[in-house]
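Cross-posted from the bioinformatics board.
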Amino acid sequence: MTTNVKTDLENKGRSRLTVGQKPRWTWAACLAGSAVVAAAVLALIGFNVAGWAVLTAVLYVASMYVSTVVLENRRKATNGLWTNLVFGAFVIALLPLVSVLWTVLSIGLPGLLAPGFLASDMLGITGAVDQQSVNEGTSVLGGVAHALVGSLLITIGATVISVPIGLLTSIYLVEYSRGGFFSKAITFFVDVMTGIPSIVAGLFAAGLMMTLVGPGTNVMGFSAVLALSVLMIPVVVRSTEEMLRVVPNELREASYALGVRKWRTILRVVIPTSISGIASGVTLAIARVIGETAPILVTAGVAIQTNWNLFQDWMMSLPVYIYRQMMFPTAPSAPDASEQRAWAAALVLIIIVMLLNLLARFIAKAFAPKKSGR
Amino acid sequence: MTTTTQQSALHDPKSAGGRAGDKIFSGIALTAGIVILAILAFVALYLVVESLPALTAGEGELTNGKTSFWSYVGPMMVGTLIASGVALLLATPVAVGVALFISHYSPKHLSQPIGYVIDLLAAIPSVVYGAWGMTFLGPLLVPAYRWLSENAGWIPIFAGGYSQTGRTLFTASVVLAVMVLPIITSMCREIFVQTPKLHEEAALALGATRWEMVKMAVFPFARAGIVSAVMLGLGRALGETMAVALVLSPGVLSANLISAGNQTIPAEIALNFPEAFGMRQNELIAAGLVLFVITLVVNMIARWIVSRHKEFSGAN
């Protein structure tokens, strides 16, 4: 009766199913062993926490592989190795995110909470003022009001130009073109436009305005609006096109069957159906261009005071403000004040971008067409 | 009866207002398309016209005693390519790993939140990454540079000293890698989840481990998509300006990755264009044209790969 004969392993409390598997606690043993070995190795050459964590991880992955080869087989060991590596890749990807957010919060939050940071501009903030505040330990003066105004105006301007052009183009592509040469050309060149480096868009806008209004006066908010529009239009076209394409054809046909004209069908049926997707796509496009630095730097220049006029004089924006404060501190001998302002501005910018992203998700969810119930 | 007359006025197919409306609306839509083509033609034309003086300039005409335009832009081109290449070498394995983690390894209910977290990486503006690389990452990497310089100095890319501030081409590449990671990840993820379920289940049913299933079912399906995702990431890295402008302390081209020096085209433009005039401006615009052409070629190759494999890959 062979079925009644128990193997040695089963007598030790293991079932036949788990024979040939490594014990459950292998990973814990490997981890503990790796941590100890890593600490010992680093104790010889100087201990630091980051090095210890990295070395432990490497040793853990290696020891898990070896122990699985020994206890099970090579195929299972390879599988485990790649599982560990994939998890490791995810952890590695999280490190810079955590690090950036931590840096921004730890340096930027005190700056953001400094009195008047959001309400004042940099007029009258000279190196001497910074030097004094650092020496005496008082709160850093100066703020981002002018940059906020500039970013707001430039982004609104770019949206006003890009959204109609982008929306109408995608309407043409989806509703009117019949896959002819012209629509293929538009699709292709929109792809090309998506790949334009932002600095090249800035060069183009700066140069175009120089030809139109002459050198010197061409540095103004409107040049930056043009540059950002070049970057924003293709994003709007692509997202809107996708949204229009998912509108079911039955809706259009039902409208035609009632004798409604095509343009009214588009305005009253197609666009209302897809408006949530279009709006969230536009919001994401805004979130993308509001962080662009290089095109604004070469078109709108830099300024220290609030300028409400898009068509005259240099204009500051948030990303350029961060760049200037980082690269050219107001007081070169006391750069801490400028750095704090830069990180606080970065915090403001990140908050704006996050809010826009959340808003886009909210729009997409809240105003999505109802699928049932009618 | 008023309702019927109103209806007929609204919906009468022969009403002149409706027909005119149709014509006007389609005309406006067509115009918008033409405007886009015109803008792009304008960008290209403007870049070429403004570059011509610099491209055709002979010796002595260029600023700062450069002998020819190509000797000026050539080293920066190489610098741009090295920075982007190293960034891709660093980013691609991690990005593919993260995409696999989201699509095949993480618990199902966690994959969407994890996707949001990776999208957060894409939401942070480039200038913030630049500032982070300049003040945090650079100094953090200095000990590693010192070690490399002392122990691996015989390798050409580490030869000849190291930077005390950490503002080197390698730091810039790491920052670029962080920036292109979410792009590659999100594209790869979209392709990975489209792998036919039957292929995966067939592999598992034959006794394959999860890794063997990924190797035999997922990767062959997604290969073209991964390549084009990497190419699109390259297009982004090539044109990235502020991260490099903030991180790198520029200088002449050297093969050394860990000391100050080297320069990329976009950073050169951003740093010098605001003060440039005359021939210097033409030089920078011509450099922009070169960058435009390079990114255009890279992006077109990526799209071409996608379109060639359209039938069996979800990469579009």
